[in-house]
Design goal:
By secondary structure, this protein is of the alpha/beta class. Helices cover 40% and strands 17% of the residues. α15 packs antiparallel against α17.
Length: 473
Amino acid sequence: MKCLLTSPSWRTEDIRSVQTRAVSGVWPMPGVLSVGAALRQAGHDVRILDGHFHTEAQLLGEIEAWKPDLLGVYSVTLMWNRATELFRRVKRLDPKTFTVAGGPAPTGFMSRCLDEPALDAVVYGEGDLTVVELAARVASGADLDGVQGCVWRDGDLIVQNPPRAPIPDLDALPMPAYDLVAHYSYRPSYGQVKRLPAMQVISSRGCASRCIFCFKTINGATRYRSPGHVVDEIESYVRRHGAREIKFWDEQFMLNRERAMGICEEILRRNLKIVFWCTGRVDTVDEELLRMMKRAGCWCISYGLESGVEKNLATLNKRTTVEQGREAVCLTHRAGIESMGTYVFGIPGETYEEGQETIRFACSMNHFYVEFFPLTPFPGTKLYDEIDRYGRLNAPQERLGMLFKAAPFVAPTMTEEQIVDLVERGYARYYARPSYVLRRIAGIRGWYDVQVMFHGALSVATMGFSRLRHSIR
């Protein structure tokens, strides 16, 4: 069966703030690559089109020319309206095309997505096995009764099947279908990679944390790929695609210390000349592990620090402390590894003064890279499900597509204007510090570093103009 996987047409400005557009990049869709590989292994003819590189007219032209039997569309919440419009137009081209939605938006909205008549089914949660089973049913003309992890249309009824259990043996899955996309067309965000080409790896799935702004659907027991299997994938990217950097998209790369050590040892044993970036929780690091990661090529660890105020971390249910964050970053730098810090504003109960304290805390951390976000209540999170308890959505809702303003969520203790001001103030204060600028200039080693500096300066200038515009208003 012919299966086409895609996303709605989109551009950077559709999902990135004015503060970060100049440095933003785009990666391949890891979930789509995994689903594509699973479908191909099952014997289907698979194509992948990334909406970032196509207008809607171009997508429709490709779909009309190839005539897929099944169209799977990956969508985030901000792109859901565009996804539904794509389904409608595809059905007008060929009503027999079976349309499936997957990704964060469908997983959060689930059965409500099928308010759109042009959509036949939703896959929620991990899609690898669900989509393969679904495609087999569609190919045979059978209905989707009993296919775990999907919601489907049975005549006039919307049927929500039970969830599929998380895949226990991740080593049994095929390697992501990187060969189905033009990986060289992608450009990572400036400042978040050291070397090009850079490719992404997901070495584990799941997250045991219960932060109120993260998807509950990814929570639960973390499952791991074995070190050898992970490094097999890395080695294939080095040999086939000339990869020089790996970005691990795991929720918590270092949660299983023994396995993280095993991956590093295997990279060293195979003498792979790569560097890598990963994420980590501040309560999972120690000096020995960090030293091993440095030897294996780790150059940066991203920590979700979120706030420099203790009570706000408790509100988010981070289960970490400000001091743990400071100590983890200190240990990371001492091991010769850079750090990235992410922070949010608009936390329920947070005041404007506490937001300023978070900015001071971030500046004191001396991260290589930092991002500030307004707290966003995505569907599928506790924050969204209990929105009336925490504050209010500051956005209109047309069906299920959210048209977010600059601050999509507002709690009683801050205004939208204050949240926006904190985001802009955080970026401006952090990146305009003379010590930071001099450090980055001293770290220039080649043309790519010059590009990073240029785009960073452009981003800071854009923020300055934005703040000036607000002050004039």
